[in-house]
# Entry
Amino acid sequence: MVVGANNIGMNAANAAQAVSGRSSWFGPKVKRAELVDMTSQMAIMTRAGVDMASALESLVRQCTSPALRPILEEVHESVLSGNSVSESMAKYGHVFDATFVASVSAGEASGRLPEVLRQLSELLRNDMRLRNSVRTMLAYPILLSVVSSTVLLALILFVLPRFAEIFADFDAPLPVVTQFLISVSSELRMRFWFWVPLLVGGFTGAYFFKRSVTGRLMWDRFSLSAPILSGVTRSLLIGRVCRLLGIMIDSGVPLLDGLRLARSSVKNSLYVDLFVQLEDDVMNGRGLASALLASDFVPGSAGEMVVTAEKTGTLGMVTGMIGQHYEEEGEAKLKEVVAFMEPVITVVMGALVAIIVMAVMLPLFDLSSVAKG
# Structure
């Protein structure tokens, strides 16, 4: 059993190295939905007793994607030449990432490939569903913010200057709010050559700063510690990582290799540091307990359950259940945040519009009073 586990670990590590070394591709991009469908069909056919070469041949005939079809053809030819499925997939790291290839490799070595493919299809399908849910939930607040900002900008730049000319003709004293908005409008219109490049430069600088090491670290810390955002981010991150780790352990990937592959799939730098610490603890025989329980951004209940599962030998099953629970919890918290954001955006934008309308109407009332007098 030890030799078998070592062989699985070596296969998984070799597969991951192959993906990292041969991941360049200049053709059309394979859509996530296409990868999900392909994995699901492979899982169904292999569970029905179809060998992988025949399954790949069937997928090539059925595939209509101009991006995925040539890849499946080459993977099929590679398998017919005597290479394993994982080795053949490892040549296309832009489609089959290190985790995917390592899980397939472990499934081949352990004889559980159909079950591994089923779990991978569920993981990919859940990721796609979660991304679509996030996009759908954020679409309305973003659209509302853009439309409201456009309306406010139009009022300040085009509507307010027209009334400013009328007010100037009567030479009447204006309220402070009106004077301020007219000054802002005049400044933006007269010196747009300064403010537009400044705004574009600010957004560009913020974008590149966020992509830098320092900016990424600051954003990662903020996302895990902000009062409202942290609940969503922590739940989704720990859910994704635990679900992925559970699938790899159930597939037969050794814990250390599973931790390394999970670390490579995480974008948050604080979680990367956590997995580096976990790898060091596992290599030195300390287990997962100390690093997980000491972490400030891992939910305490998740850490306790992982520690208990490690002691009872049910780490794969428990981490998968933890991942599913926290992904669902994170999605529910995200819905709450979005439901809170929508009325807040509406109220704030409505208040700003009301201020602009008030700045226009108050002088008009004064002018009408003067005219009557």
Q: What stands out?
A: Residues 122-373 form one domain. The chain has 16 helices and no strands. Residues 1-7, 18-26 have pLDDT under 50 and may be disordered.
